[in-house]
Backbone:
């Protein structure tokens, strides 16, 4: 737990309050987050292509999956969309959730989703999709009410253990499964949005740890047990910021 607590102290010492602060502190994080979040669900995504998109806005001589290219590009656009909102500490809302989904999934819906089922990026699901071994997912007609209730619960939990609240928000969001596609990418992005507007360091859920991540989600789905997700987020926070903490320690020793 010490490294986790040190990561929180470091983040708060940085006083990340402006868009310039966010760019400075998340310069490498944003690429690693986009790569890992995308890679969890799309093996075609590569780190090199993701970095090139973030640094140059495009990938030269790209021959890979069109969907992967859209997903990587969308992550960059979403970062720019959310950056001023994070700086302003704009609360989560239904409109923001839908806007985030619209940006992250633009151009990624396949023909079956888009044409046959009438699903659209930025709109809640129109059909009953289930997910996970427990086959969870709100009915389409219940999605907005369930999310509104969840956002209200977040307000009620204000000031309590932020990582536990974040674990609940993320597990519950994925349980609701509000969209036809892209729920994981949107949920991980909104998880970090909530953490940052509450002065907590954002977290990368690493592709290499995705099975532990799935297990934590499954424990909530089957038994409403939040502890596995809470502990998982603590470990991922430590992993995300371990190199930054090491650099700070070296600077302190040198000074």
Residues:
């Amino acid at each position: 737990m010490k490294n986790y607590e040190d990561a929180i102290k470091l983040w708060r010492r940085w006083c990340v309050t402006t868009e310039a602060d966010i760019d400075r502190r998340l310069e490498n994080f944003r690429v690693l987050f986009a790569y890992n979040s995308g890679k969890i669900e799309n093996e075609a995504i590569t780190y090199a292509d993701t970095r090139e998109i973030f640094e140059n806005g495009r990938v030269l001589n790209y021959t890979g999956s069109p969907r992967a290219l859209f997903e990587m590009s969308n992550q960059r656009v979403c970062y720019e969309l959310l950056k001023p909102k994070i700086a302003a500490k704009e609360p989560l809302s239904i409109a923001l959730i839908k806007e985030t989904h619209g940006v992250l999934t633009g151009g990624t819906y396949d023909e079956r989703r888009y044409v046959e089922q009438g699903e659209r990026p930025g709109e809640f699901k129109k059909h009953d999709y289930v997910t996970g071994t427990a086959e969870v997912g709100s009915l389409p007609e219940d999605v907005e009410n369930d999310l509104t209730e969840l956002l209200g619960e977040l307000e009620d939990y204000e000031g309590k253990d932020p990582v536990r609240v974040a674990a609940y928000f993320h597990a519950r969001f994925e349980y609701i499964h509000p969209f036809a596609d892209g729920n994981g990418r949107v949920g991980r992005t909104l998880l970090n949005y909530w953490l940052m507007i509450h002065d907590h360091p954002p977290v990368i859920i690493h592709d290499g740890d995705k099975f532990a991540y799935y297990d934590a989600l499954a424990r909530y789905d089957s038994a409403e047990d939040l502890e596995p997700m809470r502990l998982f987020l603590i470990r991922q926070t430590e992993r995300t910021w371990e190199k930054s903490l090491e650099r700070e320690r070296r600077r302190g020793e040198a000074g």
